[in-house]
Amino acid sequence: MPTTETILSEEKTTAVPMHPTTFVIFGVTGDLAARKLIPALLGLYAKHLLPTRFSIIGFARRPFSREEFRELIRGRMNVKPGQFKEEDIKHFLDHMCYEQGTFDDAAAYERLAKRIKEIDDRHGQCSNKLFHLSVPPTLYPAILNNLADSGLSTPCADETGWTRVLIEKPFGHDLETARHLDKLLGKLFQEEQIFRIDHYLAKESLQNILAFRFANQLFEPIWRREFIDKIHIKLFESNTVGDRGDSYDPVGALKDVGQNHMLMMLAAVAMDRPDNFDAETIRNKRAQVLKKIKAAFGGSARCAIRGQYAGYTSEENVPKDSKTETYFRLKSFVNSSRWKGVPFYLEAGKAMAENKTEIDVYFKAGKKSGDQNILTFRIQPDEGIKIKFFVKTPGHEFMVEPKTLKFKYADVPAPNWQSMPNDYERLIHDAFVGDQTLFASTEEIMSSWKFIEAVLKSWTNIPLSSYAKGAKEV
Ligand code: BG6
Known about the structure:
Blueprint: H1 4-9, E1 21-26, H2 31-46, E2 54-60, H3 66-76, H4 86-94, E3 96-100, H5 106-123, E4 128-133, H6 140-149, E5 163-167, H7 175-188, E6 194-197, H8 204-215, E7 228-236, H9 245-248, H10 252-270, H11 279-291, E8 293-295, E9 304-309, E10 327-334, E11 343-349, E12 356-363, E13 374-380, E14 384-392, E15 400-408, H12 423-433, E16 439-440, H13 442-458, E17 464-467
Parallel strand pairs: 1-2, 1-4, 2-3, 4-5, 5-6, 7-11, 9-17
Antiparallel strand pairs: 6-16, 7-12, 8-10, 9-10, 10-11, 12-13, 13-14, 14-15
């Protein structure tokens, strides 16, 4: 069993390899690249966390000259004025170039391979290569097959000149399509080359659940069914689906955030203590939990709720008769000796009163007081941890009253808080150093789809409730 010391001194290779590295973004003109990827790469560059010799090749359909491409990226990337030094932005953009092509055109991959070879010749070395698929999942097979056919998926060597591929969610749209995609990936790449993204895993506040649980001896002995009454995981967003109606409507809340982000939060809070902190052990521990979740239907009416916010069917590209849920609440159980009988509530919704992602752990009430200690992991915003506990009310009477112990990341003195990597910086960094801990394994993905499919089969009879935009609860 690891001690606090072993956890805290666990050594991970965090140094970014100095070997020249080429990062290829398929779908570079898309929304994800502008909102998350390019700012994350720029952030890593500004913190000197990219290899000195790095190149970014953007790949997309529309024709652009190199200059037009850089101007487009500069204009669209989601960074705040003053967030980066002008000089850093300029030098960063100097590392970028563009390759135009359609995703199913073999000739475009030949051109891409030639472009990478020119870069390698300039360095006099075969570069490490990272391919990021920032495109709709329907395009994954064409890109993956073409990468293999053009020889780009083949590493030059194990240590240097490696090739890795980063796959965005959704990973399939059900169990069968997820299996299919995984089979294709497995045929073309070794497991250590595949990085399946769930950006929630990379949130600092989510990783802190493991640190908090396993570095403090205080909670681990009581982290089980005898002492915990229930666990409630919430992912509330105040945003509506906005202009994402066409991609959101065929999916719905359960698949959009339930199959991935919420189950990863559940895994972090419920997994057993790992013997060590390497990627394989942690991923196995998460997978063991995901394999054992079962939703509870029947019983109380609040076991399973599906909701849709009023006005959803008037959103752009949403069918007028859509029955897609924008909210759900599910009661589920983890069928293990640690958790048997402890309900895990999963609840997520769009157009809610506030943005709030948090996990509340309710401890069993003391016999007399009937009051419960509650430990809250606040994932975002206002990231932190708080504990509701009871103290004596000052005075002659022997009475207790609730108080709160709090840790807030925002109170951590600068520069530690400000310089913390955001989720995509962390993911790209870890892909560079080859650490797969924060990426989902095949087993995790398949188990989560099995759970979701079972829910979808059972909840067809549950009526869709309507809720007002800005609702606090449904
Ligand atoms: C995405 C979902 O995976 O996660 C979105 O598709 C959701 O619908 C988003 O808004 C939430 O991520 P974050 O990091 O903004 O909480």
